[in-house]
TrEMBL record:
Molecular function per GO: metal ion binding; oxidoreductase activity
Source species, domain of life: Bacteria
InterPro entries in the record: Ferritin-like (IPR012347), Ferritin-like_SF (IPR009078), Rr_diiron-bd_dom (IPR003251)
Protein's name according to its UniProt entry: Rubrerythrin diiron-binding domain-containing protein
Residue ranges occupied by any Rubrerythrin diiron-binding domain in the UniProt entry: 8-151
Length: 156
């Protein structure tokens, strides 16, 4: 079976966090509501923290053989999934431009947080046991972000 070094998987995670930070900063600037500004600014700062953790993990990741019978298929799955949730810089700019109201911004943010949770759950399969607790903490934070965004949407 072929082994692969999953540092590219962490590069996907880094891009997810970079896009999240860019989106949240743009939304904080776009809307005047103080609660929206505060929430989006907070979430942008959280994305920066997550990015740093993934950058660190990418430099220290071990070779890993997935549990699947065909590791190439597992890696292809991870790549395909990442490609569906990671926007190119042009696409994220386009999405930011199209969002014109707080409800749309929150809906997109909620969906993105859920996509991130699913991706990071898969990333746990690519790290050593001791690193899984770090991923678990990030997943817990992403869940809190989801709840925060959902609650804020209900208030609108």
């Amino acid at each position: 079976m072929a082994l692969f070094k999953p540092d590219e998987i962490f590069q996907f995670a880094i891009r997810i966090e970079e896009n999240g930070e860019k989106f949240y900063r743009a939304m904080a600037d776009k809307f005047d509501d103080p609660k929206l500004k505060e929430t989006f600014s907070y979430l942008a700062d959280e994305e920066i923290k997550h990015k740093r953790l993934y950058e660190d993990m990418a430099t220290t990741v071990e070779k890993y053989e997935p549990f699947e019978t065909y590791p190439e298929e597992y890696f292809a799955y991870m790549r395909a999934y990442a490609d569906t949730i990671i926007f190119s810089p042009d696409k994220i700019e386009e999405k930011i431009e199209k969002i014109s109201d707080p409800g749309s911004a929150l809906e997109f943010a909620i969906a993105t947080e859920l996509d991130s949770i699913l991706y990071y759950q898969e990333v746990k399969n690519l790290v050593s046991e001791k690193r899984r607790s770090v991923i678990d903490k990030i997943v817990d934070e992403e869940r809190r972000h989801f709840v925060k965004l959902t609650d804020l949407k209900k208030e609108l």
